[in-house]
Amino acid sequence: MSQKVSAKQTFSLILNSIFTLFKNPQILYPFGILAFIQLLIMEVLFFAPRNPLSFIFKPIITRLKGEAYLHYPLNFDLMNHWFQSLQVVIFLFITSYLMGKAILMIASVNQDKPIGDKMPALGLRKYLGIVLAFFFFFLLIHGLTSIYGLLIHRAVQIRSTSGIYFYIKQAVLVGAPYFNLLFSIMVTALFAYVVPVIVLEAKNVFIAIGKNFQILWLNLLPTFGVVFLTSMIYVPILLIRSNEKSLSVLFTPETWQLTVIAGIFILLFIEAMQYTAITTCYLLTKDE
Amino acid sequence: MKKKFLILCSILVVIYLVLSLLDNGEYRFEKQMWRMAKNFYSISKDPKAVPDAQFEKVIADYRAMIKKFPDSKYVPQVYSQIGMLYVMQKKYDDARKAYGEVVTGFSEDPVTVSKALMDIGNTYLFQERVKEAVDIYHRLWTDYGKTEVGFMMPLYIAGVYRSLNKDAMVQQYLERALVFYQGIARDEASGHAMQLNAYQSLATVYMAQQKWEKAIESLKSCLYLFADSPTISPRRLAMITRILNTIFIMQMKDFDRGIGFYEQFIADHPNHNLDKYIEKVIESLKYLKERDLSASTQKSQS
């Protein structure tokens, strides 16, 4: 399979990743576990204000958020707020572990090695390396969004109701979720090969970053192309989420929650495609 | 692999079902209430434009909810919304029946009953049947005087008569209010919160009677007697000082009196946790005094 795909072709990399995922659904297993963990957390948070879990959570919710959040429909706000807060922990410690395993499986498929029903072992050293790399990515994205937050703070102070400044203000405020997606795309693409290098070459995170840039330099366009095009699948979800106010008339809190759940699955599918394509690209570059 | 995914999905479904079954709370009722509230608010935006059939449908839905969840703690709230829908239709007798179901069905809960009685009284007032309204307010005052709604009744009745320009009745009820609130203020058994409310209500009565000195005395009691009580929240403190400042500035036109009052409080309560806020009030009064002085100087010069 690896001979048929060129590392320089963005579309063939994406199509190949979809083909690989459908032909080898075992690769989706780590992503499935990740979806399960996220849904389980969401489920626990959904039932947190209700009996019998309220026995543990009621005092915490009342203290941190207020009595109103124990009741419908504010319980959904609480659930999504706490779920978002937990994403950092999931990303650093669980996503990192499962992505490492997924990359090992993708590499096995690309090298025509059989992959069984069991996920391959990752090893503590590699896991810690990925956690460190993920922490670095998190800091970068957090830094960029914080800088954007300053921009939002400044934009809010613009009082113009028409003209260029008004449009700048609107672009900054309305475009916030899309700019955040762009930051995520940039960081993912810039450091796309760090995790494959750590997992497949057992290098430490600093060497992996250095090697990442060498590989990136050889595959700049396809790497950015793959990350950008696959991330575009998430735009409809962003469109729905950023129009929460106008859509809230049509949506019940439950329907709204379904879009959040759909977002989880779409994000995981995007990640599966990206990691498959990037790992394939990495292996092809290595072969060449 | 498929089997593993199936197991994971089953775990999620089982947890959902088990936790749903174990939940014996009000969640389902709250959910239905929220949906009904949407209908209620769309009607209340322009009740005149809403056909009777739609009113009846919403009322029927509310009644179905009560039938489905008769033990819910939100049942009085549902009756109250039914009553409000009848009021919007100007069907006051039906509204009173709905509120009356709360009075008879929840007689052991004085807070709930007091709110329902208030609603019944108001329906009479909407019909300009003042005597019946005041009778209900009286019942509310005598039977449920220690609830939040019953407590404010003497002042409320005075307000009703003021809106009808019946000055003699206003004065009569203000006098009765004085007796009522003085009784609660002096009664230690009422508890700090009630006593504080009583002193503040006394100030309101004195202000309505234009007895400014006595109003200041009552508010001084609020600050001095309850300075160390948790009932004096920052919000309550702000409210009390705002009323005092209104008297000092708007009625007495005496900034120095106000500044002196607060300075005395600080002198009497050194290093007290209220002092910081009181100091800010003094600063504001001094600032306003300066502005007032310069404004009057400008006026006299021109």
3D structure, described in words:
The complex is a heterodimer of chains A (288) and B (302). With 288 residues, chain A is an all-alpha fold. Chain A is built from 13 helices and no strands. In chain A, helix 5 (124-156) packs antiparallel against helix 8 (194-201), helix 7 (176-190) packs antiparallel against helix 10 (220-231) and helix 10 runs antiparallel to helix 13 (253-287). Chain A starts with 9 loop residues before the first helix and ends with a helix. The model of chain A has no long low-confidence stretch (mean pLDDT 92). Chain B is mostly helical and 302 residues long. Helices cover 80% and strands 0% of the residues of chain B. Chain B contains 15 helices and no strands. Chain B is extended and about 85 Å long. The mean pLDDT of chain B is 93. At the A-B interface, helix 2 of A face helix 1 and helix 2 of B.
Characteristics:
heterodimer; A: 288 residues; mainly alpha; 13 helices; globular; B: 302 residues; 15 helices; 80% helix; 0% strand; extended
